[in-house]
Amino acid sequence: MAHQxxxxxxxxxxxxxxxxxxLHAGGMTPSDWVTVLTLAYLALQIGLIVPKYLGNLxxxxxxxxxxxx
Length: 69
Known about the structure:
The chain has helices spanning about 1-25, 30-65. By secondary structure, the protein is mostly helical.
């Protein structure tokens, strides 16, 4: 079991450099990487914030409806 764990750990350690090499061979420059990572980060943040704000909007709308006679 320990041997399999070592293989997994080493594979995880080599993934980022292998990915960078693959992307560089595909023609992506470091500025392209930054752009892609920034867009991915932005998409994740939007995906986390939108449900929160939708919940807040629903609560606010429910309070407004309860106030009406």
